[in-house]
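We treat protein structure as text, and this decision shapes the records that our systems exchange. The remainder of this section carries one protein's record, kept here as part of the documentation:
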Amino acid sequence: MIQTKIKLYSLALAVTAALTGAAQAGQEIAATDKKQIVEEEPKQLSGSVSASYSTRYIFRGTNLMPSADGMVSADVHVSYGGFTIGAWIGTQMGSASIPGALAIGEGGGGGTPDLGVTRGAGLDGLGSGTVSGDQLVNFIASNFGLSRSEVNQAFQQILGVQVPKQITQVKQSSEAFQDRFNEVDLYAQFAFSLGPVDITLGNIFFYIDRDSETRIAAREYFASEDARELITALSGGGDSLLPGNTRPGHPEDFLLNNGRKVSRTYEAIGDEVFDRLFISVSTSAIPYVVPRVTYYQTVYSEGKNPQPELGLFRNDRKGGYLEAKVNGEIPIIKDRVNLDPYALVSYSAGDRSDKNGNSLDAWNHFQVGAELVIQVTDTFRIIPQINWMTHISDPPLGTNEDDWWGGAKAEVIF
């Protein structure tokens, strides 16, 4: 079934490339222009077919394909009498990964995994996490029917030591991988004018087909030499103060997996489905400049959560997203070449996520860029573009605070 999907996506991209006459062209995928084509009401059916390549997939300031080889995409839409319907398809090139993260997605990469490892040598009562001095004292007290003060007194009188504040620590590393990412967007909108003000109402349906996993490695070690010496003195079973069957002179028996590295691989965030309504207000009354304010509201958000042991969940909050954008148009060669710069700032009302995977309610990012529109014929154009962004809030894992990216698009207009 998955292979069938991929073949369909590849076929769609190939057909689009053939129609445009260019195999890999692109536009700035993060821009809403791909789904928000505001035109004068056509007196007849019109539209376009395009194929694109982008070095990044930056969606609302979030890199959804970090370290991948970019993305190819295709768009087709038709308009009539103010109505526009269309479809957009994007496919990841290569594999994406984020060192230090637990997942790749709009939800960020925070969380606390459960490695599913129990402590051996009869010490499972200490749990599978790090061990503090208080935990050790409580464990010994409960096993021998003593009070905490009696245990501490025994340490001081018999061993002549104070219990360290922390007995063990865990060194953990993780890396999230995304081997497949395909996105299909279906959109519909209606544009109309009230005097100098242009208003667009629309809906966008998103489907993400994703294959991702997270690899985690961890090793428990003694927090200090004092902690190691204490456990060494306690080890041995029998009349030892340490319950269980640790071997004399082998403090490593106290550690998870005897202090050796533990590795696990988990299924991470899977397929996702979103539905978002939007309203956009703009004006073309200013020559060569179009200011626009757009608000998006998520009304549906479902998806496959990672394995419970990974300790995180996708951000399923039905949040809002506000974007203020200014588009410019600078004619270079009349009717043939234009330079179209833009600048935007965005605010997340729970739609984006912070570096810990929590929903973000704050200013999100600032972005600028430009497209060079080269009208090769009356119906065919090539559009290279470049973009730069900086984050106002801390970005999620896998997204740089400041980043450049570019691409190109080939488009046939009818």
About this structure: The helical segments are 2-20, 133-144, 148-159, 225-234. Residues 2-109+177-216+269-309+317-341+369-387+405-413 form a domain with the Porin fold (CATH 2.40.160.40).
